[in-house]
């Protein structure tokens, strides 16, 4: 299941994203209405995304083709029919082959754990994964290999995808019910599910910290973080190194550059305006950092990546 067959160059690119980018996402980024608990989207093929984490559970289902999933230090080759469930706070990135079809299911953490508390059979890897979720020690992910060859699981997956595309006024209620049915069926019918190694819990704090930095990247520094979270600057630096593999300053710069890339792609702001928006008074200094990080000038990056 875990392997590198034919993905050597992609592994290098995933590793590069891990060391040069970091994003944090929240469930509200994907909600179409205020109380939505489940969101379903298709992962873009032929594309390495940004190394990121989020405050919701994520399920990747490979309907067709193959993909390489990087979850922290683990490279997981996934093939048609494979499913992975990832814990909130797990850092990850994914590359799907050009002909690959992958569905991402994004599940609100509080809602899911509340609903599953009395629903799942109390045995097996999937039960263990959710039973430890949100505790002091939890599993980063659980992989279900070729589970959709079971017709019951295939039917449950098809229902989730179908309801996500429905125009029914009861769409989200039906989607929530279908998602719970899928997880219950997976738990009952699983034959080859495998758990990641356990990991200590500081994920929720780290998600909050990363979200705060993303929102205030132009002005935040270690002093402000220490005042906000009531930790010493030394302790905050240790938390970042432990959870992201990078220093606080490196993480902050990565998020500044990520924000700058987004603005270059999606706005008509000048390089000078973007530099100041992400906290650099010196445009020349921003220019040097950006070129070092991306390998191109801001203007060249905009010309290459500008959204139409």
What does this structure look like?
This protein is an alpha+beta fold and 308 residues long. It folds into two domains: 8-200, Jelly Rolls (Sandwich); 203-305, Orthogonal Bundle (Arc Repressor Mutant, subunit A), CATH 1.10.10.60. It contains twelve helices and 14 strands. A hairpin with a 2-residue loop joins strand 6 and strand 7 (74-79). Helix 4 runs antiparallel to helix 5 (171-189). The longest helix has 19 residues, at 171-189.
Q: What are the salient characteristics of this protein?
A:
four-stranded antiparallel sheet, 308 residues, six-stranded antiparallel sheet, 14 strands, globular, alpha+beta, single chain, Arc Repressor Mutant, subunit A, Jelly Rolls, 46% helix, 2 domains
Largest sheet: 6 strands, antiparallel
Cα radius of gyration in angstroms: 20 Å
Strand portion, in percent? Answer: 15-25%
- Under CATH, the homologous superfamily of the largest domain reads Regulatory protein AraC
Question: In summary, what is this structure?
Answer:
46% of the residues lie in helices and 21% in strands. It is an alpha+beta fold and 308 residues long.
Strands, helices and their partners?
Elements: H1 8-20, E1 23-25, E2 38-42, E3 47-48, E4 52-54, E5 56-64, E6 66-71, E7 74-79, E8 83-86, E9 92-96, E10 101-108, H2 109-116, H3 125-132, E11 137-139, E12 141-144, H4 151-164, H5 171-189, E13 193-195, E14 198-200, H6 203-215, H7 222-229, H8 233-244, H9 248-266, H10 271-277, H11 283-294, H12 298-305
Parallel strand pairs: 1-4
Antiparallel strand pairs: 2-10, 3-9, 5-8, 5-10, 6-7, 6-9, 8-12, 11-14, 12-13
């Amino acid at each position: 299941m875990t392997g590198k067959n034919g993905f050597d160059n992609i592994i290098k690119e995933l590793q590069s994203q891990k060391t040069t980018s970091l994003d944090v996402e929240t469930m509200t980024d994907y909600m179409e209405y205020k109380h939505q608990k489940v969101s379903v989207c298709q992962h873009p093929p032929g594309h390495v995304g940004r190394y990121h984490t989020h405050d919701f559970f994520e399920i990747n289902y490979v309907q067709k083709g193959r993909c390489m999933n990087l979850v922290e230090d683990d490279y997981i080759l996934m093939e048609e029919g494979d499913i992975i469930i990832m814990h909130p706070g797990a850092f990850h990135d994914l590359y799907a082959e050009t002909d690959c079809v992958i569905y991402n299911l994004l599940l609100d953490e509080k809602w899911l754990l509340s609903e599953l508390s009395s629903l799942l059979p109390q045995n097996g890897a999937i039960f263990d994964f959710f039973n430890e979720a949100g505790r002091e020690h939890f599993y980063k992910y659980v992989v279900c290999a070729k589970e959709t060859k079971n017709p019951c699981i295939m039917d449950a997956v098809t229902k989730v995808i179908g309801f996500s595309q429905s125009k029914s006024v009861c769409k989200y209620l039906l989607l929530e019910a279908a998602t719970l049915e899928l997880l219950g069926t997976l738990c009952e019918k699983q034959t080859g599910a495998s758990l990641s190694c356990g990991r200590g819990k500081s994920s929720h704090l780290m998600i909050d910290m990363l979200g705060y930095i993303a929102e205030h990247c132009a002005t935040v520094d270690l002093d402000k973080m220490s005042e906000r979270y009531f930790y010493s600057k030394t302790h905050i630096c240790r938390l970042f190194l432990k959870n992201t593999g990078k220093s606080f300053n490196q993480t902050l710069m990565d998020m500044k550059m990520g924000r700058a890339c987004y603005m270059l792609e999606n706005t008509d702001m000048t390089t000078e305006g973007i530099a100041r928006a992400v906290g650099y008074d010196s445009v020349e200094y921003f220019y040097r950092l950006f070129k070092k990080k991306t390998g191109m000038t801001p203007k060249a990056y905009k010309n290459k990546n500008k959204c139409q």
